[in-house]
Amino acid sequence: MKTELSAVSAKVPDQRLPRYQRLREMLAERITQGEWAPGLAIPAETELAAEYGVALGTLRSAVGLLVDEGMLARAHGKGTFVRSELAQASMFRFFRFRGQAHQDATAIPKSIIHDLREVALAPDLSERLGAGRSRRGIFMLRTRSFTDAPHLLEKIWLPLQPFKTLLRLDRTAFGDLLYPFYRERCNVVVARASEEIGFGTLAQKDAALLRMATGHPVAVIERTAFSLAGEPVEFRITQGDAYCFHYGVEIK
Amino acid sequence: MKTELSAVSAKVPDQRLPRYQRLREMLAERITQGEWAPGLAIPAETELAAEYGVALGTLRSAVGLLVDEGMLARAHGKGTFVRSELAQASMFRFFRFRGQAHQDATAIPKSIIHDLREVALAPDLSERLGAGRSRRGIFMLRTRSFTDAPHLLEKIWLPLQPFKTLLRLDRTAFGDLLYPFYRERCNVVVARASEEIGFGTLAQKDAALLRMATGHPVAVIERTAFSLAGEPVEFRITQGDAYCFHYGVEIK
DNA sequence: CAGTGGTCTAGACCACTCC
DNA sequence: GAGTGGTCTAGACCACTGC
Predict the structure, then answer these.
(1) Smaller CB count within 10 Å for chain A: N or C?
(2) Which single residue has its CA nearest the C1' atom of nucleotide C6?
């Protein structure tokens, strides 16, 4: 199949842009439209270059952009893959409690949803979520437990679109992992996230939910999650006992 | 002038690395050595490519790495310039204090070395540093300040080889950044690092150095730094006021 | 082994900046 | 107009993966 660079889709990128940037747009389109499924490989670079009628280097530049953005991942000798959602379990290997029997990094903590409702987003939240037009959103409050007692308290904000359908579901239907749930119910794939780690003390209400003393020191993780298209789709604040907190990072 | 890729300097990067990565090392060397001054343009890409006897694309890949790292900045039609604030502190952008006047992520904190001596490495430290044969090492204690007061306390362990030469130097000769210093004095390039973040409270001795109360909550960052060859070359524990601590992470 | 991405070449022309 | 970086081509060969 030969796909002309100028006629691949209804959305033709600005012709004045460099070819590799237009290619990036067209490839991103095919990914977000679901033509290439998350977790699977896209066609080989030589094949795609031939299909679009561009040189290999140009195609590679376009793919490179999507790799930098986190939409694609290259695997030398194997192929180029559409990123599936961040396995939340794998994200949790960075956030584990130390010195405990439940050290198992793959363990998925049990989730209990205490609150779920539509809310008006504060201006800063609205901006974070890119929900420019609508100031409406969804707020979720849940605790997560590794054993019996609650260890983590999470406050989660979502834009009303495309998550509105979640409001109609029973809280027990959510399961312990949200990102696969987002994908199944709302067709949103979380591709990457940005976290900010800080330190604070528990407010009275939060302390009650965690069964800890007001003012107890906690680690505070603020996470913004992004879709394959690069749009912010979730903001969450996680709190947990500071002295049990442990977080690993690889630099460069 | 023609400079052979293989004979440009006494420090020849590993020949097994791709050409553009070796080029990057050699260009970085000329920048850090001061041959090209901060704020000024380096030679044109065509000129450098000819000098090193490589294709333009290869030279551009090498420059691209240094641009990504923030050491160089391209200006279309004007040239490629050495960044003024030679922010070798790229590793420090992950560890910044919030809500303060010295928010500038590129600011390099002032360093004061309080202790520097040869020590026997505890077994776990010896293992971390891969100093299997020799159990001897170097211990360094220093504080770092963004303004006048000390903000961070760092305990640093190094294997005796190849850092032995540091013991003969005056403490004031160390400067504010250790990694460039390691490279200049000991020919060790820190290529990547692994960090573990946690929280704790200040011991009495440490509290005195930070001029804070014993038991004050602190963020604790344990970092293992690795050389280009992948060998662990430094282990350091950094402590700082938990309430000022802020750490950003990108997850993909 | 075939197929994939990774590196590299030696050109070409375009877009931008400054004189 | 001269010099710079930006884009693009059409090849070549290497390194890695999996059968």
Answers:
(1) N
(2) A76
Which pLDDT belongs to residue B177?
81
What's residue A34's pLDDT? 83
- Name which of B59, B62, B33 is nearest B48 in CA terms: B59
Instruction: Write the CA distances from B163 to A220, B14, B129, B140, B232, integer angstroms.
Output: 38, 20, 12, 12, 13
- pTM for the model: 0.73
Q: Does A190 touch chain B (CB under 8 A)?
A: no
Residues B59-80 as b/e (b if ≥16 CB within 10 A, e otherwise) read bbbbbebbeeebbbeeeeeeeb
- Residue A200 has a pLDDT of 94
Whether the CB of B2 is below 8 Å from some CB of chain A: the reply is: no
Confidence (pLDDT) at A101: 42
Find out whether A80 and A31 touch, Cβ atoms under 8 Å: no
- Alpha-carbon gap: B181 to the closest alpha carbon of chain A (Å): 19
How close A194 gets to chain B, by Cα (Å)? 5
The answer to whether strand D lies under 7 Å from the CB of residue B68 is: no
Residue type, A116: L
If chain B, 252 residues long, is cut into consecutive pieces of 10 residues, what is the mean pLDDT of each piece?
Answer: 41 70 90 82 94 94 88 91 58 46 56 94 87 81 86 93 90 83 77 81 95 95 77 90 81 60
Q: Is A251 on the interface with B (CB under 8 A)?
A: yes
User: What residue ranges in chain B does DSSP mark as E strands?
Assistant: 41-42, 72-75, 79-82, 95-97, 110-120, 136-145, 152-159, 190-201, 217-227, 232-241, 245-251
A84 to chain B nearest CA, in Å?
A: 10
Report the distance from CA of residue A238 to the C1' of nucleotide D8 in Å, as an integer: 47
Strand D–CB B78 distance below 7 A? yes
What's the rounded Cα separation, in Å, for the pair B54 and B56?
Answer: 6
Which residue has its C-alpha nearest to nucleotide C17's C1'?
B77
